[in-house]
């Protein structure tokens, strides 16, 4: 039954963004809002009456025998459970129902918390909870004093019970008052001083921060703290050992979650401050930005430039391989290629171009992944993990998201920076374009100085008015150009081959190493946060 209820609830939420009919979104009808207001006016006072009756029945039951005390305890707990369920239903009706029937669920849910104005239902609930928390502390102190004063007027058994009751109430009130001071005099200043500041250093405008989630994170922390403290005081008041033991554990988990928040944010800021200055002596906003700068300038641009040079050589050699010559004027005479060795260069450039394009594609994917890390880890995954860390059902999921954000925001790009420093320390040089080879094959002066001198369209020697001199020069130009081009060796490709060899470590080995170390770190840090061996 519970599963079916949750399935229906999720289906309703999924279809609540648009109205059931084809008409445009409209504000809630006046009749609907009037009915909801009437429901609130009738149910809310009834809830307060039920709470008062439950407290009175429980307190009165303690003055009688064991059977009456047990019946009063069960009856008061059932009454309070019913009040809690009704309160949850009223909250859903107030927040979801008007927007559900009007197709404006997003705007209705925005009323819970507006990050631009920091107003809405959640801040209002926090304000009411703060006031109610203080009033509850005072009421419990007064009740403890009244019980302690009235107890000696009756028998010894009643006097002993009154002393125990007053001690428990006074201890719960003192603990609540101390935590009240901690929450509203320590946590709130920490929110202003830490959670609203950007987690970034260096020459950046604004930097990366928790964004809109910073205020929500602290509000959730305070709300969960108040719920735990109020329930803890009620458990002491109602004398329910199971609640008290459970809430003791939850209170310690709450404090550990708050310590984890301070630890993670401080570690993020320190890691960014350290790693952002490791590359190129320039201050970056984060390690991911420094890794992107290294991969873009030292790896991606050089691989792209090398691939363009190889394609130039491939195009020119493919064109030159089509040139042929006959020994005579007849059709049956022998035909041979002018540049017979150029086919080898075409095959070599095919292999080199495929390798360089594969390198460039791999580097582009890595840079895109680093951009996703820069844009998602701090603004989304980190605050989501910190918020989920406070709730018992999602505590492990929150620890995983925190570890995921820290691993990919700090460790993953740091490994790229370390590999870049190693690459520079072992003599890694930027790509040197083979300009001589490209000009020799594709340039306007294709065959060097000799080709220029014997080029009838460029050389001034052809303008010398000597009979037969121009014919001699044309013959020498043909022989010289073909001979010089056929003299090109494979050693001209050494700069490109050296560059491919230097990039192979960064392109093929570094991503696998960085991902393997990061995943191992995420698993270890998740166990560390949830304190599991």
UniProtKB/TrEMBL annotation:
Task: Name residues in a coiled coil.
Answer: none
- Protein name, please? Uncharacterized protein
Entry keyword set? Membrane, Transmembrane, Transmembrane helix
| Transmembrane stretches, start-end | 40-59, 80-101, 121-149, 169-190, 210-234, 254-274, 338-360, 367-391, 397-418, 500-522
Signal sequence span per UniProt? Answer: none
Organism of origin is Candidatus Bilamarchaeum dharawalense
Highest taxon of the lineage: Archaea
